[in-house]
Amino acid sequence: MMPVSIAIDGPAGAGKSTVARMVAKRLNWMYVDTGAMYRAIAFLCARSGVDPEDAQEVEAILQQHEIEFEEGSDGGLRVFVDGSDVTDHLRDPDVSSLVSAVAAHGAVRDRLTEWQRAFAKRYSVVMDGRDIGTVVLPNAAVKVFLTAQPEERARRRQSEFLQQGFHVPLDEIVQSVIERDRRDSEREIAPLRQAEDAVRIDSTNKTVEQIVDQILQLVAAHVR
Ligand code: CDP
Known about the structure:
Layout: E1 5-9, H1 16-27, E2 30-33, H2 34-48, H3 55-64, E3 67-71, E4 77-81, E5 84-85, H4 93-103, H5 106-122, E6 125-129, H6 132-136, E7 142-147, H7 150-163, H8 170-186, E8 199-202, H9 208-222
Helix pairs in contact: 1-9, 2-4, 2-5, 4-8, 7-8
The structure holds cytidine-5'-diphosphate.
Residues 12-13, 16-17, 34-35, 38-39, 99-100, 103, 129-132, 180, 184 line the site of cytidine-5'-diphosphate.
């Protein structure tokens, strides 16, 4: 059977990764977290003290280091940099603050888009990100644009941070989430936007289960 793809895009903290991972699990497909790929490069910039705005420096980083992705036992993507597993550092605040600048460079996007398409060619995937339905997989069988109100998205991020053991004030998170959305939406290459043929789902007052069920219904209706 030809591999099938589901694209889930949306702003920061809308719940894409939780939902995408569960949909993938229910279908027994691969979950591809493209945000983790961009974060891997931002992590490298943070560690090497590279200016994330400097296209040449960022491109050099891409060439100097080996980045690999593997499916982890929890169904998520494990990210390796020069052979060591950096997955647990990808959501650190210093990585989050650099990632949008890193993701704006064409060279970075070209490289990652190529990797993402290679996954989708080999495996049936649930892929989440910003430009999956619009640029990476325009022929995805199902496209979802998942949103939620900014305060709700910030609250979710805050409880993730709390689980990791640090308290970040809510208004600080609201600001950083809004700032990242602005950068992601206003960039020239592959900006965050809803594909014309995507189904918009607002997760603000919905449970994860409800959203997963809604997406599985779309899959049942559109795949074969
Ligand atoms: O989980 P969260 O929504 O906070 O972010 P993420 O999915 O891990 O993505 C982190 C950042 O990577 C985004 O803010 C974008 O700048 C960038 N990104 C992108 O440009 N294109 C994608 N397909 C995925 C992520």
